[in-house]
Specification:
Order of helices and strands: EHEHHHEHHEHHEEEH
Helix content: 40-55%
Strand order of the largest sheet: 2-1-3-4-5
Bound molecules: flavin mononucleotide
CATH topology: Rossmann fold
Number of domains: 1
Shape: globular
């Protein structure tokens, strides 16, 4: 049995090309026995639809903090208390910066600040964004805070460049989470 069996994982999806891989990631985590709840940034919705994640996870997807029905009972706090682990994948440079600085100006950053669940971050971005001193500093802050960094991988990028910044493959992310949970 996978170490992820019965683990409650809140998957936060950010806006980047690799968001499509998050759909496969949900499938793999569910296959490993995890309960998966998806929250998306507004930008993520430009790349992949909430309907896809809802169908794969079997749960309604949260896409905004400003959801009157969900927030009637402070749904974001309830959701922030729910998971055994939060996984941000793909993690954009923007959301990584927000997490490093403790911003809470959207659903995903608010959930990550309002939780005591351990945080794992799988970055995915253009190699120049990844190597920018601002991103390097933000990653150092997260590492220093004990955030589990998964990747990024190195190789060809959707933008035509080559370098570090590829999202790890869903299997690699699931294996790394399972190793942590074991
Ligand atoms: C076509 C396209 C692809 C993008 N790919 C990425 C990416 O892979 N990684 C990244 O960090 N930002 C990427 N961006 C920029 C982000 O979408 C942008 O910084 C956005 O504000 C991120 O918002 P979020 O962190 O709330 O999801 C891309 C933008 C566009 C238009």
């Amino acid at each position: 049995m996978s170490a992820l069996h019965d683990q409650k994982i809140l998957l936060c999806v950010c806006g980047g090309i690799a968001a499509y891989k998050a759909a496969e990631l949900v499938r793999r985590m569910i296959q490993a026995g995890a309960q998966v709840q998806v929250a998306m940034t507004a930008s993520a919705g430009h790349f992949v639809s909430a309907t896809t994640f809802q169908a794969l996870s079997g749960r309604p997807v949260r896409t905004t903090l400003w959801d009157d029905a969900a927030e009637a009972a402070m749904g974001h706090i309830e959701l922030a208390r729910w998971p055994d682990r939060i996984l941000v994948a793909p993690a954009s440079a923007n959301t990584i910066a927000k997490l490093a600085h403790g911003l809470a100006d959207d659903l995903v950053s608010t959930l990550c600040l309002a939780t005591d669940a351990p945080l794992a971050v799988a970055p995915a971005m253009n190699q120049q964004m990844w190597s920018h001193p601002a991103t390097r500093a933000n990653i150092d802050v997260l590492r220093g805070r004990g955030v589990l960094l998964l990747g990024p991988g190195v190789g060809d990028q959707a933008c035509g460049e080559t370098g570090a910044g590829r999202l790890l493959e869903p299997d690699e992310i699931v294996a790394a989470l399972a190793q942590r949970a074991a």
